[in-house]
């Protein structure tokens, strides 16, 4: 959680090294009283699964496209 100008600057500095980039519109209280934690259940878990070499059908439609493509290939091989 940071000022939008700082986030833009950081993204610019890391643009060639970022694996996943998505800005969520949350405030400081989102973690305590947020109405939807879907970003955690889907996007964050998809990233963690990817780096732990796991796939989960519940995260296959996350915003983390790199992980989605790999998992789609895994599921495709399992069906064959």
Description of the molecule:
The protein has 80 residues and is mainly alpha-helical. It has one domain (4-79). Helix content is 55%, strand content 0%. α3 crosses α4. It is flat.
Number of helices: 4
Poorly predicted sequence stretches spanning 5 or more consecutive residues = none
Secondary-structure element order, N to C: HHHH
Label the structural class: mainly alpha
Helix content: 55-70%
The averaged pLDDT comes out at 80
Sheet bearing the most strands, described?
Answer: none
Question: Which percent band covers the strand fraction?
Answer: under 5%
Topology, number of strands: 0
Rg is: 15 Å
Count of all domains: 1
Key traits:
mainly alpha; 80 residues
List the helices and strands and how they pair.
Elements: H1 4-14, H2 30-33, H3 38-51, H4 65-79
Helix pairs in contact: 3-4
Q: What is the structure about, briefly put?
A:
The chain has 80 residues and is mainly alpha-helical. The chain contains four helices and no strands. It has helices at 4-14, 30-33, 38-51, 65-79.
């Amino acid at each position: 959680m940071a000022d939008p100008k700082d986030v833009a600057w950081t993204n610019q500095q890391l643009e060639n090294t970022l694996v996943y980039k998505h800005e969520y519109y949350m405030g400081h209280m989102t973690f305590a009283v947020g109405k939807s934690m879907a970003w955690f259940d889907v996007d964050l878990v998809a990233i963690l699964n990817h780096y732990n070499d796991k796939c989960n059908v519940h995260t296959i439609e996350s915003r983390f496209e790199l992980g989605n493509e790999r998992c789609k290939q895994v599921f495709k091989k399992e069906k064959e």
